[in-house]
Amino acid sequence: MTDRESWSAGLPVLPRPLVMGVVNVTPDSFSDGGQHATTDAAIAHGRMLQAQGADVLDIGGESTRPGATRPLVTEELGRVVPVIRALASEGIAVSVDTMRHEVAQAALDAGAVLVNDVSGGLADPRILAVVAEHGAAYVAMHWRAHSEVMQQLASYDDVLVEVRDELAQRLEDAVEAGVDPARLIVDPGLGFAKTADHNWELLGRLPELAPLGVPILVGSSRKSFLGSLLAGPDGTPRPVQDREDANVALTTIAAIQGVWAVRVHEVPASLDAIKVVTRWRMDSRSGDGRPAGSVGAP
Ligand code: PMM
Q: Is 263 annotated as catalytic?
């Protein structure tokens, strides 16, 4: 488990991948929309995920599900800031899931240690200067456009190479804006301008992101490519709440490939899987001799 303090010197590196627990304070997220929509419910949920062993909590106030419409800035602020302030004041390491510089600014002022920007700075480039000023950590996720149009851009000759090249550009922009290179993280952005096949290919080739030179975060939890993989005989996708077991398999796959962190809605089973992989990797006959978290680590 990490706390706020352990982020002050740079990104925490544990002997295992970190678990980022998701708290969506939204009425409409595909994964948990409406479940933690009030401030009190979101704070309670965050405390529960932390008690279950989450290393960092990712608080989001904008749904990024395909086709979602964007909240007003004031709405997003009202959703996330009180939750971040409360959890951070308890010493919990908190991340804000936002694409907006105003929200990043308020979240960092309220005690967040990390800005998780699913647009990697493309939606609102001013976010990078805010992160730089605060000396905060920053996740640059691979993204091509806002939710309503992103799936029209799910076209690649080689998805891994194009995602890597586009992420390299996002990292360059961040460093140019003054973000500390030692606090940068990349995320291939499963489901964002990606088909299910693209997601599977990225999940199979994570070590090829290593040349980016920064730690890797992966978010597969509850996503629709799992729903379609596990569809019933009539083709009905597996409901969101019944995709957890499969996601634990994906946590395992990501951990074996040495990612720095996974972003999940349910903590305990993914944390167990990570502990299993980490123990297994300690055995030189089964591991590759590199510590967990080494993919992409500088
Ligand atoms: N996915 C969602 C939202 N934020 N952030 C990162 N870094 N990576 C992701 O894959 C990601 C994200 C999708 O929505 P959810 O909050 O309902 O999981």
A: yes
Cβ atoms within 10 Å, residue 16:
20
User: How far is it, in rounded angstroms, from Cα 31 to Cα 215?
Assistant: 25
Number of other residues whose CB lies within 10 A of the CB of residue 93: 26
DSSP assignment, residue 67? T
In sequence order, the β-bridge partners of residue 91 are: none
Residues ≥6 apart with Cβ < 8 Å to 146: 70, 123
**What pTM did the predictor assign?**
0.94
Q: How many CB atoms lie within 10 A of CB 2?
A: 18
CA 50 to chain centre: 16
Ligand 1 atom nearest to 60, measured from its CA: 16
C-alpha closest to that of 216 among 172, 248, 174, 255: 255
Nearest to 43 by CA among 90, 1, 102, 109: 90
Q: What is the largest CA-CA distance in the chain?
A: 54
Ligand 1 pocket: which residues have CB below 6 Å?
22, 24, 29-31, 60, 64, 97, 116, 118, 139, 141, 187, 189-190, 217, 219, 221, 263
Task: Report the separation in Å between the CA atom of 276 and the middle of ligand 1, taken as the mean of its atom positions.
Answer: 24
Among candidate residues 4, 170, 222, 223, the one labeled active-site is 223
Successive 10-residue mean pLDDT values, the chain, 298 residues: 84 95 85 77 97 98 83 96 98 98 98 98 98 98 92 95 98 98 98 97 98 98 96 96 97 97 98 97 62 46
Q: Which atom of ligand 1 is nearest to the CA of 141?
A: 7
223 among known catalytic residues: yes
pLDDT value, residue 291: 47
Answer for the pair 100, 122: CB distance below 8 angstroms, yes or no.
Answer: no
